[in-house]
């Protein structure tokens, strides 16, 4: 069955259009895609300050692609708010509603918000349509994270969502941040998802090419947090670990 895969930009610029790919159903009915984005300009506009402009990748294309991998539950997905939409979660929320209306009642989402501006009622409304966490993204614009500011945001976010069942913080950060936030994360009342392999790098992307990847800053802290069941490491975006840029498609 023909399906569609997306291509991704590594930096600001245009993302090439989706390319057709043939695939046979290969996944069991209890398999999940835990990190996927929907880009649909017919639902909502991109943020003017976005770091890149993606190609359209609609919910219909996602379900078509999912149907090529599993014939039973292509809607077993976690939609993650991508940086081109900023804190406007319209596309995410409308896509979750459409999935639930189509029978994919367990589809879930991870939103991006301004924790200082959003109300408890708005968070509850997100919960009602399937959102189960908030993404804190320090990597989208390529700038170094202000560790003190990040620590404050993480603590305040955890405090706001601690009473929402099943909610987690999804943190997209450089690997070294796990050293900086180790004690903070240990004390959080919610679990943390380490986005995209926790920001770890392969040897080709390390500043010291002779450094073994397991010796890079943050590696030990991330592993220790995972062993203490405080962090789930999301195995996604493996292409970010290497220097060579492949077209994902």
TrEMBL record:
<feature type="domain" description="Amidohydrolase-related">
    <location>
        <begin position="32"/>
        <end position="242"/>
    </location>
</feature>
<dbReference type="InterPro" id="IPR032466">
    <property type="entry name" value="Metal_Hydrolase"/>
</dbReference>
<dbReference type="Pfam" id="PF04909">
    <property type="entry name" value="Amidohydro_2"/>
</dbReference>
<dbReference type="InterPro" id="IPR052358">
    <property type="entry name" value="Aro_Compnd_Degr_Hydrolases"/>
</dbReference>
<feature type="region of interest" description="Disordered">
    <location>
        <begin position="1"/>
        <end position="21"/>
    </location>
</feature>
<dbReference type="InterPro" id="IPR006680">
    <property type="entry name" value="Amidohydro-rel"/>
</dbReference>
<dbReference type="GO" id="GO:0016787">
    <property type="term" value="F:hydrolase activity"/>
</dbReference>
<protein>
    <submittedName>
        <fullName>2-pyrone-4,6-dicarbaxylate hydrolase</fullName>
    </submittedName>
</protein>
<keyword id="KW-0378">Hydrolase</keyword>
